[in-house]
Amino acid sequence: MAWFKREKKGIITTTEEKKEAPDGLWNKCPNCKKPLHYTEQVENKYVCHYCNYHLRIGSKEYFSILFDNNEFTELFGNLKSGDPLHFEDTKKYTERLEDSYKKTGLNDAIRAAQGKVNGIDMVIACMDFSFIGGSMGSVVGEKIARSIDHCIKKKLPFLMISKSGGARMMEAAFSLMQMAKTSAKLALLSKAGIPYVSLLTDPTTGGVTASYAMLGDINIAEPGALIGFAGPRVIKETIKKELPKGFQTAEFVLEHGFLDFIVDRRHLKSKLSAFLRMVE
Amino acid sequence: MSTSFDFEKPIADLQQQIDKVKQVADKTKVDMSATLAELNGKVEEAKQQVYNNLTGWQRVQISRHPDRPQTFDYVSMMCDDFLELHGDRTVKDDKAIVGGFATIAGQSVMIIGHQKGKNTKERQYRNFGMANPEGYRKALRLMKLAEKFNKPVITLIDTMGAYPGLEAEERGQGEAIARNLLEMSVLKVPILSFIIGEGASGGALGIGVGDKVYMLENSWYSVISPESCSSILWRSWDYKEQAAEKLKLTSGDMFANKLIDGVIPEPLGGAHQDPKYMADVVKEQILKDLKTLSKKKIDDLVNARIEKFCSMGVVEE
């Protein structure tokens, strides 16, 4: 029975011959901890097969899920943040931005694009949480404002996918005013009779909830998403009590009347186009 | 002297000296007028020195002075008549945002503002000026009422923020503020907003989308309070002074960044030093603006309001 005896000591495969398993080919569902294979994940719209947990994804993935054949024209892609306040905390804001450009390959926490969704021409703006927590600064506000202008001009429906911790502190009051700016533009979009769908994904909090995310003709959300104005930690510290289970989940927000429905990501495209056809 | 701040110590010390000298003069009947005059001169000098070099954090402290005039103070000092209106018609009457029809120099206006309360009991009753969703919905209801009767809206802002509570979330704090932002941006009557004390984030902006937005000299206005900013970005409560500087939240900075339309000067040392004078200055500004804004066509006014807020922000292309 020599076959189970290790005759040569140590690892004998040379480094050159070593086969690497590519990074990200497998990962673990953060909810049920079961392993997920990348290609299966893509097929399943980044939803866990086992527990239906909706993995946190960015604009690239949402565009690929929604736009027909993943074909779209990106809008206002060149907008980048200024640093009007020369902000610096433990790190300079400009350095934070540079790091984020490098880390994410994105220009800010939002991308906007025009394309067809089940044949319906529309504009989708989608936030990226990986870029400084999806925080809303001037670029986010400006891109949404311009996207809305574009929708009014071309008479195109608008989908906003929110995923954000709230306003970007490093732009202080400039960030705050993006709330007024986007809300004012949405008033104009509404006046023009153009449909606006707001999709709230995990997480949507702070100034984003208190402006465009809550102002959809319909507000919809992904299952289990954290949605709220104040963050759970702040509320806990304020009321000095434990928060009830399921507080500030999409299901909780639906129950309290601020969402129209919760949509499984695998049905997002069909439900979105169904709604747009009905109000056409 | 009532509540004074650490940075006012040089002034308080001199004031104490003056009091002592006065006592001695009274007792001994010796003429101390020369000494007193000299000390009074020094007090004035110290005041100029302190109050003309206030840091961001010092202004934040002044904006929270317990005697600082609040919405009801302005109403009683500026208005000939006031009829308070209550309730959002859905849930309840919020006590942190108050409002009603008022007359100022014979003109009817709708006044809406935060009320923090003056003593412990009243502060609790007013929830420290932190409104729940029904406060924002009451404000919107009153603005719609003003629109119906074509009366201008005046909002007085003074809040540490919208209340971060459990019920506030259940009743849609985010939606309530968002709705106000949208509706205010297209409201068909002139809107004047004044940050009279603290202007923290969405809780302030929720009644602050005005044709003209003014800050009182020692008020502050930003996306977050310096304390919370310190705790989030520095992960410690000890950097509030730095945060106050970095956030550029003072009236001067906000005006320089074109995020407000003007700064209303306060009496030396803050609005609480002379509330009546403060109210007169605010009243004068209101009357002046109502005169010019009422001449404009309402569609032009609304377009200009939208345009103003849409031009805010700094991006590079």
Helices and strands in order:
The complex is a heterodimer of chains A (280) and B (317).
Chain A: E1 26-28, E2 35-37, H1 38-43, H2 59-66, E3 72-75, E4 80-81, H3 93-104, E5 110-117, E6 120-127, H4 138-154, E7 158-164, H5 172-191, E8 196-204, E9 218-221, H6 232-239, H7 250-255, E10 261-262, H8 268-279
Parallel strand pairs in A: 6-7, 7-8, 8-9, 9-10
Antiparallel strand pairs in A: 1-2, 3-5, 5-6
Chain B: H1 9-28, H2 33-51, H3 56-63, H4 71-78, E1 81-84, E2 97-104, E3 107-114, H5 120-125, H6 133-148, E4 153-159, H7 166-170, H8 173-185, E5 191-200, H9 201-205, E6 212-216, E7 220-222, H10 226-233, H11 240-246, H12 251-256, E8 262-264, H13 275-294, H14 298-310, E9 315-316
Parallel strand pairs in B: 3-4, 4-5, 5-6, 5-7, 6-8
Antiparallel strand pairs in B: 1-2, 2-3
Helix pairs in contact in B: 1-2, 4-13, 6-8, 10-11
Keywords:
heterodimer; A: 280 residues; alpha/beta; 2-enoyl-CoA Hydratase, Chain A, domain 1; seven-stranded mixed beta sheet; two-stranded antiparallel ribbon; 8 helices; 32% helix; 18% strand; globular; B: 317 residues; eight-stranded mixed beta sheet; 49% helix
